[in-house]
Amino acid sequence: MTRAAMVICAGMTVLAAYHGAPWYFYVPVLSAGGLLLYMLIANPVSGLHLHDDVLILSPLLHPRFIPVGDVASVEIISWSDSTDMVIHLKSGESVAAASGDIPPRAAFRDALARVGIPLKER
């Protein structure tokens, strides 16, 4: 969504320049574009990678490697305004994932089933 907003800001800037918009039109558009660019640079969505033998959380920023054999289950909890994901390990420990790391559920459910990890949803 942030990338789409960035494209819209760029398009508005090009259209404004083409049509000769007054200078005060550029102030909010370029300010919004600058803030969106900052969001994309400072806080990228990192995601996760699931392979046959390892689950990698936040692979781009601070990777955390969890062997698939150590995972007991993955729990996705939907709240009114956000979604949480907790990885339950066979040792009894739990690992919380950042909300930006949670992939689309349908594809993630299929990938977890492929490697034999149960998915719990609340």
TrEMBL record:
The organism's place on the tree of life at top rank: Bacteria
Transmembrane segments: 26-45
Keyword set, alphabetical order: Membrane, Transmembrane, Transmembrane helix
Protein name: PH domain-containing protein
Organism in which the protein naturally occurs: Roseobacter ponti
